Amino acid sequence: MTTRPTPAPARKLLLANARLVDPATGREEFGDLLVEDGLIADFGAALRAARPEGATVLDCRGEVVAPGLIDMRAFVGEPGAEHRETLASASRAAAAGGVTTVVCMPDTNPPVDEPAVVDYLNRRARDTAIVRMIPAAALTKGLAGREMTEIGLLREAGAAFLTDGARSVTNAQVMRRALTYARDFGALIVHHCEDPDLVGDGVMNEGELASRLGLHGIPREAETLMLERDLRLVRLTGGRYHAAMVSCADSVAIMARAKSDGLDVTCGVSINSLALNENDIGPYRTFLKLSPPLRHEDDRIAVVEALSDGLIDVIVSDHNPQDVETKRQPFAECADGAIGLETMLAVGLRLVHSGEIGLAALLRAMTTRPAEILGLPQGRLARGAPADLIVFDPDEPFVQDPADLHSRSKNTPFDGARLQGRVHVTIVGGAIVYQRD
């Protein structure tokens, strides 16, 4: 497999003999897709009869061509933790997984709480990354949860949205003010819903299994109480709000009620919460210590059904690279987090192969909906849209070997897992940035 520095796009690139899947419309057909000057010029079955002259032809051999994935939640260590991940290494992992746009969390060192840091990351991404890397900005100064950042200036600098990453803003007055100011600037607040006081020293989902393993549990109420509070503040302020990751049936019910009431709210779910449950922790597998924790199978089924119904808007990788020293510890003492950029699509396809969700619905949650929420022109097959595309075989089987991953860290919960679905080509702005050998 190969990843390359971002080349200049071919003036004309024809993706021939493809299964075209547009998650924005649900349209699916066999045909060709023409890229010109970094944009989608045309697509459909009619192109097969009249292929343009002078185009570089890529034979897709019946594989799926779809918009590139958009991941709204990934931790990248730069600046301050480059030993865990850099913009360059994260972008290579993203390209290999079919992710063409990555939103990077602000909990770095220093945190992304000043416009100058946003500008620095944008320039670093332009110089070193092979996919689109967009920084999110901190919601509070120093991620301390006490004082708002300069929301308007951060938005002008190019921040995707405001969030404190893996930290929750526990002060309701601060959150109320943030939602009010964000509303006035047209900015989006993304919040990690987890009450740290209720989490306490918990390390996995509270319940019978935690008791049997002798581990302190985290109740679902740590998530649902914070989510309920946030949605009441949204009702009060009229701000735009996105719950970063919901993980249980109760949160699904809360979001359903808020949406039915007409609140301007959306939510995401981690790919790990869709594909795994608390039983997968097994013999204290530290790569499965996550935040939010893996829940009961009933909760997993509830979030999958909510995703299929469109109640949950987006799927995120929750990419959180950790080094060996922070993971090779007792389960209760190791760091939270797992990598996921490179495996998000293949793991999601498990749900398609099991019949739990359709391919178009899965791709919509990874492409069209995040693009709509972020106000991006990507995420659809449409004439004039940016040519951020992937070519993948949804049925190709493989066993995940951590040594094959492009991330600097190897803490994947799918070590040795049997998966189906290989990305063969990733295109960003009309340029091929990844092509599997």
UniProtKB/TrEMBL annotation:
Pathway: Pyrimidine metabolism; UMP biosynthesis via de novo pathway; (S)-dihydroorotate from bicarbonate: step 3/3. The keyword Chaperone does not apply. It is an enzyme of class 3 (hydrolase). Residues 355-434 form the Amidohydrolase domain. Binds 2 Zn(2+) ions per subunit. Zn(2+) 2 binds at residue 192. It catalyses: (S)-dihydroorotate + H2O = N-carbamoyl-L-aspartate + H(+). Zn(2+) 1 binds at residue 318. Coiled coil: none annotated. It holds the Pfam family Amidohydro_3. Its EC number is 3.5.2.3. Residues 62-249 form the Dihydroorotase catalytic domain. Keywords: Hydrolase, Metal-binding, Pyrimidine biosynthesis, Zinc. Its cofactor is Zn(2+). The active site is at 318. CDD domains: DHOase_IIa. One of its GO terms (molecular function) is dihydroorotase activity. InterPro entries: Amidohydro_3, DHOase, DHOase/Allantoinase_Hydrolase, DHOase_cat, Metal-dep_hydrolase_composite, Metal_Hydrolase. HAMAP family: PyrC_classI_B. Belongs to the metallo-dependent hydrolases superfamily. DHOase family. Class I DHOase subfamily. Catalyzes the reversible cyclization of carbamoyl aspartate to dihydroorotate. This is Dihydroorotase. It comes from Alsobacter ponti. The gene is pyrC.
